[in-house]
Design goal:
By secondary structure, the chain is mainly β. 0% of the residues lie in helices and 50% in strands.
Length: 103
């Protein structure tokens, strides 16, 4: 299992700004190792965010995303004390889900 995501959610205006740093190797499938063999593709394919259990954002990603990706988005209507849950799934079927409380 990968390292936990770093999630920060802060009230700003009528919603909350959510910043997420994910820990993932994000291989494109185009690089070669020292022996010249192609390193298989391994990347996040879907990211979802939920506010108090209700999905508020879904993103589909591909191979063009950097290692240990960072994403930021705004959730309208979020208040201090609300719970944000972020989940990703990669092309190998691995999953990670972490949560944070809006400050």
């Amino acid at each position: 299992m990968s390292d936990p995501m770093r999630i920060r959610a802060q009230v700003q205006g009528s919603g909350a700004v959510v910043r997420v740093l994910m820990s993932h190797e994000m291989e494109t499938g185009q690089r070669k190792d020292a022996a010249g063999k192609t390193i298989p593709a391994w990347h996040i394919t879907e990211v979802t965010a939920a506010l108090n259990g209700k999905t508020v954002m879904t993103a589909q990603w591909g191979t063009a995303i950097a290692k240990n990706p960072f994403t930021e988005f705004v959730v309208k209507g979020a208040k201090a004390g609300d719970k944000i849950t972020v989940t990703w799934v990669d092309n190998r079927g691995d999953k990670r889900s972490d949560e944070a409380v809006v400050a």
